[in-house]
Design a protein that fits this description.
Keywords: Kinase, Membrane, Phosphoprotein, Transferase, Transmembrane, Transmembrane helix
CATH architecture of one domain: 2-Layer Sandwich
Catalytic activity: ATP + protein L-histidine = ADP + protein N-phospho-L-histidine
Helix content: 40-55%
Low-confidence stretches: 483-489
Radius of gyration: 55 Å
Structural class: alpha+beta
Strand content: 25-35%
Distance between the termini: 51 Å
Largest sheet: 5 strands, mixed
Number of strands: 15
Protein name: histidine kinase
Oligomer: single chain
Pfam families: HATPase_c (PF02518), HisKA (PF00512)
Enzyme class: transferase
Number of helices: 12
Strand order of the largest sheet: 10-12-13-15-14
CATH superfamily of one domain: Histidine kinase-like ATPase, C-terminal domain
Shape: rod-shaped
Length: about 525
Amino acid sequence: MNKKLFVLLVVLMSLSLLGIIFVQVYWIRTSVNDKEEQFSRTVTDILDKVASRVEKREMKEYSDRLASLADSIGEPKSTQYKNFLFVDRDLNSDEILFYSHGILEEDYNITSAFFDINTGGNEDTTTIKNFTSKRTKAVFKEEYGLDGKSYSLTPIQRAEKIGGLSSIDKAAWEDVFMEAAKAKPIHKRVSKQELELLLSQELSNRNIDTDYEYGVYSQGYPTKVRSRKFKFSGTKMYKAPIFKDSEGSSNFSLLLTFPSMKKYIFSSVMGMALLSLVFTLVIMLAYSSAIYQLIKQKRISEIKSDFINNMTHEFKTPIATINLAVEAIRNPKSIEDKEKVLRYLGMIRDENKRMHAQVENVLRISKLEKNQLDISKDRVNMHDIITDAIAHIELIVQDRGGYVNAHLDAERSEVLANDMHMTNVVVNILDNAVKYSPETPKIDVFTEVVKNSIIIKVQDHGAGMSKAVLKKVFEKFYREHTGDIHNVKGHGLGLAYVKRIIDDHQGEVYAESEKGKGSTFFIKLPLI
């Protein structure tokens, strides 16, 4: 994948993810704000309803008391005044309509104690009058005798109705009552039990299940009517006037607070918020995985390209050598020289073995990946394997003026392992030590027993590795870049093969290194 396209793809995916997260956060905040606004409207409506119910209850109590008191007095003094009379005669039907509307005044002598007003011990009375209307309608028909002299009015219809004058009377009574009720202390007009009952009922009807505190304040000052934990603080507080007068104003306010309001509101959207959060996390994980896979595939693509280049380079040399040897043998002058022919045939054989070994390494790793490599294990001596492995590279080391010293000090060295694969493991590590020694190879091999395991330590004084390289050195196809990727022959499979074989033997392999000071590889295997 083109590097610019890859960067563009990552940027677009990142922006999309950030956009999704922003939308989810915005949606949650909007939902919380909407719920809070809806909650405020509901609570305000509840307070108005509770205040109205308290006022109506108080009004009814006074009305009932007045009715009871009026009944106990007996017949009040009645007077009719302002009588209106209307007479109409229909000439076509000979009918006469009589309509009268009079106002009856009933006077009650009721003491001022009815309104709980302190009059200083005086026995004066407060006059309460009741006004009702009396409406009478009568229709008569004029009739004359046969002689034309006799005359009479025959009643056809008569109706009489006595009732309240109008809503004006009710308004007047309520106004009188409201003014008189102002003199009573607030705790006698409403109780804490009544407010708690009404508030609980209204909150329950609106499906609001959370703790609340309430209080009645008079012009900003607390009264006795309040819950035990109510505090006039800076928290969200809902207010509604209570005991309003005829002009709609009031000295008292019913206050309501919810200590856990934020928690309650957030819990109402918690389900959708958690679901949204889960989906967002899934998208983030999918995004992270996709980015990781893209980076991994890009790195694998680069490593495979590097591997193909290295393998091509390593095959080119033996192929070229074989071609030269074949051409030399075909030369008529050389073909007669048996010694030269044998030398060229030996070169062809060695280069062929070299290419075969490379192919075998690739096939071994492929079989290990697919778990198709059959590794049979027998009792083997690791000291013998190490000695055999050193013999494989000793000539190369000596040719470069170096050395390989073995310090086989382990008292026990027998393990359950595959002879061939374990030899290849040690050879690969020793071969790496030789390859990555820019100057004279100086290699030491140590063995020791730690608890029930044998530790094999291969130490060199070569180029060493950085910490970043040390983390990836056992990965397949990985090779450290040193400017020219062909300055050290290899294909990045040796140490990957080593790790897979050691893991299969229930062992451990790891390395310690410092750039410019060499490396030390450790192999830990369980002893028999």
